[in-house]
Amino acid sequence: MCRHLAYLGPATSLAALIFEGANSLERQSWAPTMMRQGGTVNVDGFGVGWFPAAPDEARADVGSEADAPLLYRRTGPIWNDHGFAEMSTVVGTRAALAAVRSATVGMPISEEACAPFRHGRWLFSHNGLLPGWPDSATRLIETLPTAALATSGATDSALLWAWLRARLDAGDPPASAVRDLVGAAAQIPGSRLNLLLTDGSTVVASTWTHSLFVQSAPGRLMVSSEPLDTAEGWTEVPDASLLVATRDEIDITPIHPAPSRGRL
Ligand code: GLN
């Protein structure tokens, strides 16, 4: 399954977020350690969405709210994009969401299928799958406004994003929208639903079968499928949880009820 991360904190470079650390996201694309039988490598594309900031501007308190996020997505393995590796050293941000992809069997390899998905200020990623998609998702699809369907791409993740986007557009609080989406999609047996959503000031994440870790320091938050380094301070988010976090606060609550699961 894919690996993803979200960062809120002092200005840093995309390179620091994606390439640094003994178990960086880039390394997780070819040597992930916690795939839980959901694939072996993450080579079917990658993406990063970020709120731009000058790298030397270390004002964590200001946030990144002024600008909409920028997006960079490619269909190949991240290690093969040498231009991105160079460019990322000079791109600054205080808030970003990045992912490396292992396409679920039967899903297209395309830029549109790579997370993050973007809508206004929102960036979204899904680590997991809906078994039997699209037929198994009929009930989810039926609840969607037609306009959301028209813009949804041809993957299970894009469908989940269309559902969530419709709820966010309707003004639902992001945390309850993510929680409700997990509840609805988990009705499909065997669903894996690690969702990750940010608007640059809040991160909302769910765990539903896949791993997720959090590391925090005053004014700084990192949420990641796997610890990015061997340093202390990574806390595993329990399965079936909803994480809602800002730069300074983390709230983790169980997602209830827990519908029946497929086997790992
Ligand atoms: N099912 C999604 C896709 O095909 C996500 C895959 C994953 O988490 N590996 O893109």
UniProtKB/TrEMBL annotation:
<dbReference type="InterPro" id="IPR026869">
    <property type="entry name" value="EgtC-like"/>
</dbReference>
<dbReference type="GO" id="GO:0016811">
    <property type="term" value="F:hydrolase activity, acting on carbon-nitrogen (but not peptide) bonds, in linear amides"/>
</dbReference>
<feature type="domain" description="Glutamine amidotransferase type-2">
    <location>
        <begin position="2"/>
        <end position="264"/>
    </location>
</feature>
<dbReference type="GO" id="GO:0052699">
    <property type="term" value="P:ergothioneine biosynthetic process"/>
</dbReference>
<dbReference type="InterPro" id="IPR029055">
    <property type="entry name" value="Ntn_hydrolases_N"/>
</dbReference>
<dbReference type="Pfam" id="PF13230">
    <property type="entry name" value="GATase_4"/>
</dbReference>
<dbReference type="InterPro" id="IPR032889">
    <property type="entry name" value="EgtC_Actinobacteria"/>
</dbReference>
<dbReference type="InterPro" id="IPR017932">
    <property type="entry name" value="GATase_2_dom"/>
</dbReference>
<keyword id="KW-0378">Hydrolase</keyword>
<dbReference type="InterPro" id="IPR052373">
    <property type="entry name" value="Gamma-glu_amide_hydrolase"/>
</dbReference>
<comment type="function">
    <text>Catalyzes the hydrolysis of the gamma-glutamyl amide bond of hercynyl-gamma-L-glutamyl-L-cysteine sulfoxide to produce hercynylcysteine sulfoxide, a step in the biosynthesis pathway of ergothioneine.</text>
</comment>
<comment type="pathway">
    <text>Amino-acid biosynthesis; ergothioneine biosynthesis.</text>
</comment>
<keyword id="KW-0315">Glutamine amidotransferase</keyword>
<dbReference type="InterPro" id="IPR017808">
    <property type="entry name" value="EgtC"/>
</dbReference>
<protein>
    <recommendedName>
        <fullName>Gamma-glutamyl-hercynylcysteine sulfoxide hydrolase</fullName>
        <ecNumber>3.5.1.118</ecNumber>
    </recommendedName>
</protein>
